[in-house]
Amino acid sequence: HDDAERYARAYADAISAIAEYESGRAGSVFTRNSISVKLSAIHPRLEYVKRERVMAELLPRLLPLCRAARDAGIGFTMDAEEADRLDLHLDIFAAVSADASLKGWNGLGLAVQAYQKRAPAVIDWLAALAREHQRRIPVRLVKGAYWDSEIKRAQELGIDGYPVFTRKASTDVSYLACARQLL
């Protein structure tokens, strides 16, 4: 918890620094500098089996950071993590999106990893959420960052398939398909 609090303070300081840099500069939340936050840095047990605890402890730490970014007129992206955290990550994103204090703010975004086989479904889910809350949701589409560990974890667990594409060509095709879907 001490590390999570320290990271939350560091993110708050970074938001303040970006806000100071952007102060007086023209532009929208889509053209100004922004911040990307790794949720596992601000909660010590970001696991689906701890969902109730995570929601109770993380949201009070996360929402003030989102509000600070909103007040500064900058974007706030929830960074992507491992595939086994995706469901919890989406639950957290949905809860933050629904928070009344952020109504009308178009700066809350999500990183989507195209190498995860569920990426197209995540994009569909985000589109539905954007319609529900009548806002734009910035999406940072990335190919993926945890390929080795995703493969190794699936092997260790004896899972028949993998949550990610195992060939670069497949990831490239998925990235292009996801980009087309977003457009």
Give a description of the structure.
- With 183 residues, the chain is an alpha/beta fold.
- The chain has a four-stranded parallel beta sheet with strand order 1-2-3-4, with helices on one face.
- It has helices spanning 2-22, 51-72, 86-98, 119-133, 147-157, 168-182; strands spanning 34-37, 75-78, 108-113, 139-142.
- It contains six helices and four strands, in the order H-E-H-E-H-E-H-E-H-H.
- It is globular.
Brief characterization of the structure:
The chain is of the alpha/beta class and 183 residues long. The chain has six helices and four strands, in the order αβαβαβαβαα. It has helices spanning 2-22, 51-72, 86-98, 119-133, 147-157, 168-182; strands at 34-37, 75-78, 108-113, 139-142.
**DSSP strand content:** 5-15%
- Helix and strand content put the structural class at alpha/beta
Termini distance? 40 Å
**Based on CA inertia axes, which overall geometry fits?**
globular
Backbone CA Rg: 17 Å
The percentage helix is: 40-55%
Strand adjacency order, main sheet:
1-2-3-4
Rounded average pLDDT: 95
Largest sheet: 4 strands, parallel
N-to-C SSE string, H for helix and E for strand:
HEHEHEHEHH
How many strand units? 4
Low-confidence stretches: none
What's the tally of helices? Answer: 6
